[in-house]
Amino acid sequence: MKRLDIIPQPNKITFLGGETELDESKLAVEISPELGNEEYVLTAANGEIKLVGGSERAIFYGKQTLRQMGRVSPSVIIEDKPAFPYRGFMLDTVRHTFSIEETKKMIDAAASVKMNVMHWHLTDDQGFRAYSKRRPEATEKGSVRKSSDFGRLKENGAYGGYFTPEEMKEIVDYCAERYITVIPEFDVPGHCSALIHAYPQISCTGEKIEVKTSQGIYDDILCAGKDETFEVVFDILSDLLEIFPSEYIHIGGDEAPKKRWKECPHCQKRMRENGLSSEEELQSWFTNRIIDFLASKGRKTFVWNESLKGGSLDKNAVVQMWMDRKKLSVDFANNGGKMINSEFFRYYCDYPYSMTPLIKTYRYNPVIKGIKNKESVVGVEAPIWTEYINNFDRLCYMCFPRFTAVAETGWTEDKNKNAADFQRRFRIYTSILNEIGITPAPPEEWNPSALDRVTKTLYFFSGLLHRKK
Prior knowledge:
Blueprint lengths: L12 E9 L5 E5 L8 E6 L2 E6 L2 H12 L4 E9 L5 E7 L7 H13 L4 E5 L1 E2 L2 E2 L8 H4 L7 E3 L2 E3 L9 H12 L4 E5 L7 H6 L28 H17 L4 E3 L8 H5 L1 H9 L5 H18 L3 E5 L13 E4 L6 H7 L3 E4 L2 H4 L10 H6 L13 E8 L7 H8 L2 H10 L7 H18 L13 H13 L7
Parallel strand pairs: 2-4, 6-7, 6-17, 7-12, 13-14, 14-15, 15-16, 16-17
Antiparallel strand pairs: 1-5, 3-4, 3-5, 8-9, 10-11
């Protein structure tokens, strides 16, 4: 019985010979300043269990390992710490929303495999889901769309809903108990149709637009030339800061077409006043102004990699790379910046397994080609966008086992990873997911055949009318 079936795979296991019964009532726990904040040592031998951690967080991680060891285990010493400090998942609750209880199940699953960040996507073109007491119309008007038309997933009738400050705080507290930080995302200047619907005066044209009913990239974005734009943005951010204690706040920055800015006298005036030669530079200016505001409140900023196009992004921002053909994220990282890897073709969980098989997700090395220093890659994140996911069972099917594959990459050093063994271990770990209330995709669907990959992927994309993030 010289084997442990644990996800993520511990980084150092010393087998002592023989077996031992595990009785958690006999667990001895100790905090040691000699260990790192997320580092623990678990010894199980002779019917005794000792867990030493560098912090309460590390003790929690050690207990997640112990939970997966069963009632009888090989006698072992496990010396363990993560490969990356950031190990996250992103939940889009804009396109389709999920209940507080369903969200808690996702959090429980993430905590069980030592993930430590929940990136909560709360605003987009199809709805504004975070209630703002300073700007209540953002949710009162912007949280409802007239229908839903996401490829083959069509739903007639109004779709709405938002999270109250109390509900968001409930999620923050629930995560904190499991050593998960919640990073909210308020996406600007693009993907703001819902916000502009509530406040048309902060767009370039001032014309009222509808909350979008389908996926896409839309020309109407926030006007960078109007001071009122920043008043609205800062008010909403101020509300979020009162709810979310996270060091970082995500402000989006992706997929922001510049058509309106090119035609807008306010934006062109702003460019002239600040000596900016392009609309991409204007977005850098726009983003840096928000970064400065957050810094004045003691916070830092996450942005999507498109924010690098202007060439002058504040180096204190952390860039989340999802699709970066020009390798601007690599250049940013090599010049002292930090990045999170959420690579579209490997880590996006909303596309079918035919397009992104489990093996492809698992084997991906987030320290991508060109990176000179591994430390510049802060970690990994698995996003799930929900245009095509309108119920919790489908959400679970798409996320698992992918979330756990990304979790193992975030925790386990590359030299200790093994794809075939991971898939074996996941079959055993599934019982924990079932206890939580999550049903993952069945094993026969994780890695489709070559023929299935082609036909199922073509079928999926034949139903889409718009490019999406």
